[in-house]
Amino acid sequence: RIAGKYTPAQAEATKRYREKNPYIEIRCRVSHEKRDEILAHAKKSDGSLNKFLTRAIDETMKRDSERGAE
Question: How many angstroms from the chain centroid is the CA of residue 10?
Fold first, then answer.
């Protein structure tokens, strides 16, 4: 990336990557303080924010379905 410019080659590479990797992005708004708290916890447990959030969601969904709250 050149000084804030997104080149056509980068756009094409991003497009090819997204076509090969069928993941979507989910956004969540939190305060700066909460973000820092979540990042610190993720770093201590999995080291990756994405892994931590995915695990937290999976565990919550499993717990909810075991209680019958789908």
Answer: 21
Distance between CA atoms of residues 17 and 25, nearest Å:
14
Supply the pLDDT for residue 32.
97
Q: Report d(CA 32, CA 39) in Å as an integer.
A: 10
Position 4 scores a pLDDT of 73
**Residue 6 carries which side chain, given as an amino acid letter?**
Y
To 5 degrees, how large is the angle CA 48–CA 70–CA 39? 15
Residue 2 forms beta bridges with which residues?
5
Hunting for tokens 């980068």 — which residue is that?
10
| pTM metric for this prediction | 0.66
